[in-house]
Amino acid sequence: xxxxxxxxxxxxxxxxxxxxxxxxxxxxxxxxxxxxxxxxxxxxxxxxxxxxxxxxxxxxxxxxxxxxxxxxxxxxxxxxxxxxxxxxxxxxxxxxxxxxxxxxxxxxxxxxxxxxxxxxxxxxxxxxxxxxxxxxxxxxxxxxxxxxxxx
Length: 151
Fold this sequence. Notes:
Distance between the termini: 48 Å
Radius of gyration: 18 Å
Number of strands: 0
Order of helices and strands: HHHHHHH
């Protein structure tokens, strides 16, 4: 039987509790909390797909990294380190991230498919690229590559 990402996270919470791994526990609980919020929003009882969970994990990792930057700027390195360790613990759920070269190749294909010719077509390309590369690259990288290839 294939486990959904949500079930895998639930199992990892139990494993982290048994092993007394505070960081892994905090990271997996944060993801679980995000899933519960998703399920209960807008009327609730929604099915959560693995794609939804991947988006949530990416959002949480981005939040952790932004917090770490702010903590570092404020001279609180121990708090920044904690955020980065949690982000790293969450990253294990994401598929292998593409290199910038791989993202460029995929975006070039997408540009050809949608027939984009100028920076005015960025919205069309971004929509298709974000869908095609979900979980494999972050939005900032995709956006940078799209701008570069269209200009």
